[in-house]
Amino acid sequence: MNLSVNICGIEFKNPLIAASGTFGFGREYQDFYDVNIWGGFCTKGLTYEKRLGNPTPRIAETPMGALNSVGLQNPGLKDFIKYELPYLKTLDTVVIVNIAGSAVEDYCRLAEAISDCDIDMIELNISCPNVKEGGMAFGTRPESIKNIVGSVRKFCKKPLIVKLSPNVEDITQNAKAAEDYGADAISLINTVSGMAVDIYTRQPILANTIGGLSGPAIKPIALKMVWDVYNAVKIPIIGMGGISSAKDVLEFMLCGARAVQVGTYNFMDPYAPVTLLDGLTKLMADCKIQDVNTIVGDLKAR
Amino acid sequence: MKDYILTITSNKQIARNVFKTEFSCQEQLPKFIGGQFLHLQVPGKILRRPLGILEMTAHYCSIVYAVVGEGTLILSQMKEGDSLKAIMPLGNGFILPKTYKKVALLGGGLGVVPLLPVITSYPEIEFYSYMGFKSRDDVILYDEFAKLSKKTCFTTEDGSFGACGFSIDALKEDLEKNNFDAVLVCGSLLMLKAVKKANFKVPVYVSMEERMGCGVGACLVCACQVKKGDSIENLRVCLDGPVFMLDEVAL
Ligand SMILES: Cc1cc2nc3c(=O)[nH]c(=O)nc-3n(C[C@H](O)[C@H](O)[C@H](O)COP(=O)(O)OP(=O)(O)OC[C@H]3O[C@@H](n4cnc5c(N)ncnc54)[C@H](O)[C@@H]3O)c2cc1C
Ligand SMILES: Cc1cc2nc3c(=O)[nH]c(=O)nc-3n(C[C@H](O)[C@H](O)[C@H](O)COP(=O)(O)O)c2cc1C
Ligand code: FES
Asked: Which of A148, A243, A302, B13 is the most buried (most CB within 10 A)?
């Protein structure tokens, strides 16, 4: 049975990638399993300068989902290189560094610096709903996507994944803009903008008032967007949003994802990739799938 | 730490809105220190719930919790024989130096729960316990503290059980005459602020509470602001805490 996939010339031993922001810089789940079991993993969103993120509370439970407003807390480039990179280099899995910024120039100098590091790919986060400066504002309109992807492309020497926001009018326009201006792959979706309210205190639950919804609740939205984008661009797609079973993985791949990212499910099951891989091999055998690549985009139109 | 399958052996109401759940576990559970917690999966919920560990031996553990929302309500309605998963033991707990001989425990409401096992974690230390509640109906674990502490002082705000007033005031009265090596605190944010203001002249350890995502340090949801020299850092309540030194945390 073949589970390995290839994205932009990079080999992944299986299509499962830990989603940015849910897997730190890779160390925290070492106690539970060998983290090299992941096909790849995406680090917590990195900015040039260190960020403390938003005030707490930063998470709320919602029906079949979670709403977070971490707001890109991260150690900044210098400490990343000093403390996190040496560990990442020891790993035998694809390492994707997720980057963010407050201005196009921030993204550019970060992409340039990260390109010189021993990592495999860069994921451009232009879709974080939880920060005022940067994040989603860059990634909701084709014009600004052209500008930022085009600019970063000039400084980025690694395969460039552009991560799209679902909080938009037409995701296919945004995907095409990213493709036209130099993205090597597209990942989607980031969290869906949302809110939770406490009727007793009459306050929003999150200190930041709004947050990003993730988990099973957003899966149908994500599946549709992956399918729409698959039909609009030629570059590979990495799908995510609510994946919490092997069946979900196959659904995303049928809609056109060549690999998938797994986020909130890590919180539900600390052995997420072990459980999913186990399920995937069983399910593929059941469905008589020899090679996982053969189902990518193989959704039968009605 | 590991995700264990726990089976409920008893689930009982022990005070107003407060339940005690006891579990058995087929696998051997590790050693733990008072102040550590578990991250409990509740059926039908996406996020796990962090709850202090009251007791834990090779194949047994227990928790005591208040029913405050949907997750704890579901938990309180679960039956003997039902199973759920828990990542445990998590966090640093109250790690105390060997030199301590006499330590005061200051608890408020459900904050008394993680303090009880500290006593059994350090058999060589004498513990003085100051635990406060709103009213008689809220009092929990009195017999347990009375059995294990050198001195036990329970207070209620309305005077319906023990002394009338706040547990911090009872502790203040005793601070002068007892040379405590440290004070360990677990309670509401209001209580922590009162302790900060009181400015005890001994080391104060506090257990912080924050909403969690992963429980293991990966998501940065549970930030606690801490002063490091001139700058402010975010530490993780789940991994770097929940116990911090009071003078480092920005309250
Ligand atoms: C380290 C630690 C130890 C704790 N120990 C105990 C204990 O021994 N006994 C006890 O009664 N309570 C304890 N708490 C508080 C307990 O976690 C919350 O009361 C509980 O999670 C509420 O869940 P719910 O589903 O009923 O509430 P909901 O409001 O429905 O929960 C929604 C979300 O908010 C989170 N949440 C809500 N209130 C709190 C809170 N006060 N602290 C952290 N997360 C919260 C929940 O975990 C969940 O993710 C502890 C908290 C922490 C951080
Ligand atoms: C706590 C948390 C933090 C996140 N931080 C980031 C981040 O730093 N950068 C980013 O691109 N996405 C971030 N995300 C979004 C996820 O990578 C993912 O796009 C989203 O959660 C949907 O997938 P899921 O439903 O499997 O969680 C975060 C999500 C969560 C839940
Ligand atoms: S809850 Fe995820 S880092 Fe603490």
From this structure: A243
> Which residues 231-250 of chain B have a CB within 8 Å of chain A?
232, 234, 239
Neighboring chain B residues of A27 at a CB cutoff of 8 Å:
217
Contact between B80 and B9 (Cβ < 8 Å): yes
Q: Which two tokens stand for residue A172?
A: 């296919």
Cis peptide bond upstream of B114, omega within 30:
no
Helices and strands counted in chain A (H then E): 9, 16
How far is it, in rounded angstroms, from Cα B57 to Cα A223?
46
| Both structure tokens of A259 | 């690999």
Q: Which of B2, B212, B220, B251 is most worth mutating to test chain A (most A CB atoms within 10 A of its CB)?
A: B220
Cβ–Cβ of A267/B232 closer than 8 Å? Answer: no
Going by C-alpha positions, the residue among A259, A275, A284, A271 that lies closest to residue A16 is A259
Complex ipTM more than 0.85, yes or no? yes
pLDDT band at B251 (very low <50, low <70, confident <90, very high): confident
User: How much is the pTM?
Assistant: 0.96
pLDDT in tens, B227-245: 888 888 999 999 999 999 9
Q: CA A123, CA A138: separation in Å to the nearest integer?
A: 14
SS3 letters across A212-260: EEECHHHHHHHHHHHHHHHCCCCCCEEEECCCCCHHHHHHHHHCCCCEE
Q: What is the DSSP string of B95-127?
A: ---TT--EEEEEEEGGGGGGGHHHHHH-TTSEE
Q: Which residues of A touch B (CB under 8 A)?
A: 21-24, 27-29, 31-32, 44, 52-53, 56-62, 64-66, 68, 70, 73, 215-216, 264, 266-271
A163 in Cβ contact with A42 (< 8 Å): no
